[in-house]
Amino acid sequence: MFSAFFNPTPADPTAPNLHPVSETHKSDLFGQLETKDLEWTCAGGFTTETQIFYHFLEDETMIMCQVIHSSIGMWYPTIQFTCKIYNPKTKETIWRSINVSNFVTPPPGLDKRSCKADQFSITCKPSADPSHPEIYVIRANLSDDLQVSLDVSRPASVPGFKVGKGPKGGFSYFGPDLEKPEGYVVHRFWPRTAASGHIIHKGQAIVAKGTGMLVHAIQGMRPNLIASRWNFAHFQSNDHGGVSAIQMEFTTLDTHGRHGAGSGGATVNVGSLVLGGKLAVVTAETRWPDEVPEEAPIMSRAIHLNAVHDADTGYKQPSALEFSWAGPSILTDSPGTVSASLSVDVGGPSAPKGLVEKVDVLAEIPYVIKTMVNYVAGTKPYIYQWQNHAKLNLRGPDAILPGLSEGLEIEGILYNEASFIS
Question: Taking the mean position of all CA atoms in its chain, how far away is CA 97?
């Protein structure tokens, strides 16, 4: 990633220096994950790698478990395990973030999809159940009063995916030279998972059974140089044999765009739809600042509505959001185009709806990282987190779901984030 310091200035300063995954893999959006895709790379330089498990339990409690591996130049990497448990009925939030010791990948006898430290272990292995052939076994002792034990499995009918086939599938690259990029972003997903196990909090056991997703992501550049904004949506429903809709979206700074420095503000979005318990659609779209987005055969969009200034953070937070998906079915027995949309009212700063937390990022990340990342003076990154009931509006071939051609409304739970970096 240091190539930018040694390469001469490109002959054409208006040459593209953002190469989004939606543009480089237009003809093969669905790339099935291979074993290597979910292995820890633990890359050096300025790289942040993370593995996150999100789940909704049967009582609608949300649990998030995350491992973060942060490399900061010549410094020894920092590895964190974070866990958030939010009960929307009681509004109780349990939060732990610990720097772990003696991190190892792979553990003895396992491959690099697995990792462990003194405080936790995550083991990826084949399952004895052919209907859920792969499983992650998570065991974490996060404090004297919080232990987590979860088994997270992937249904056989919902393969893990990245956007695009092959070793470069999933990657968006930064810099004018694709062969020597200045940085990159990559996401790999299990878009619908089943979780079972228990949580022990203050000596009380909580049964943990539900559905969710996994994302393994890498930012191969300083995070404040990659994006000014992020959006994330995670919708799950058990109706119609299992439905999920997910999106991950980032907006570049002015430094990276289709015409070099000064043409940034491009928005790159990847997503998927699981319908009837099967992965049906993979979406990817880039919206350029000099284009007015219109209806398109492939859409993957998160739109903020009615933004209001929030005195707590200094940012204009959305009062509502709209998410949309459209693309061809990847199910060989059910060809056709599928579209989906979802709207959520999250309220304003004075009357929030479903607000889990406004996360002050600088208060959570390790001190070493904080001092190495030069955020713009006077700005503080914040992540808004919400959980609400939502309705996903679907349309597509009846061969996927009966009645889909006339439109279906799926009720479920949405967890979504809006991150403001600068």
Answer: 19
CATH of the domain at 224: 2.40.370.10
Residue predicted with more confidence, 217 or 76:
217
Structural domain containing residue 11: 3-420
Q: What's the token pair of residue 119?
A: 């405080």
pLDDT, position 4: 40
CA distances from residue 24 to 27, 106, 171, 197, 395 in whole angstroms, order as listed: 9, 32, 9, 40, 27
Bridge-partner residues for 162, per DSSP? 31
What are the residues facing 52 on neighbouring strands? 66, 215
* Interval 143-169 mean pLDDT: 97
Using the CB atoms, write b or e for 186-206: b if 16+ within 10 Å.
bbbbbbbbbbebebebeeeeb
Q: pLDDT band for 294, please (50, 70, 90 cuts).
A: confident
Question: CB–CB of 95/65 below 8 Å?
Answer: no
Q: Could you tell me which of 247, 190, 236 has the C-alpha nearest to residue 211?
A: 236
- The pLDDT mean for the chain works out to 93
Q: What percent of the chain shows pLDDT beyond 70?
A: 94
What does pTM read for this prediction?
0.94
Name the nearest CA neighbour of 281 among 360, 386, 394, 182. 394
Q: Which residues pair with 345 in a beta bridge?
A: 320
pLDDT at 104 over 70: yes
Q: What percent of the chain has pLDDT over 90?
A: 85
pLDDT of 168 > 50? The answer is yes
Going 20 to 23 to 24 to 26, the CA torsion angle's sign is positive
Whose CA is closest to 171, among 21, 42, 17?
21
Q: How many domains does the chain have?
A: 1
Q: Can you point out the beta strands (E) in 329-406?
A: 337-345, 347-348, 351-352, 355-360, 382-395
* CA pair distance 144, 119, nearest whole angstrom: 11
Compute the distance between CA of residue 397 and CA of residue 188 in angstroms, rounded to an integer.
27
CA separation for the pair 166, 296 (Å, rounded): 26
Greatest C-alpha distance within the chain: 65
Helix spans in 87-236 (H)? 223-226
Count of C-beta atoms within a 10 Å radius of residue 173: 26
Q: Pairing state of beta strands 299-305 and 278-287?
A: unpaired
Q: Check whether the bond before 13 is cis (ω within 30° of 0).
A: no
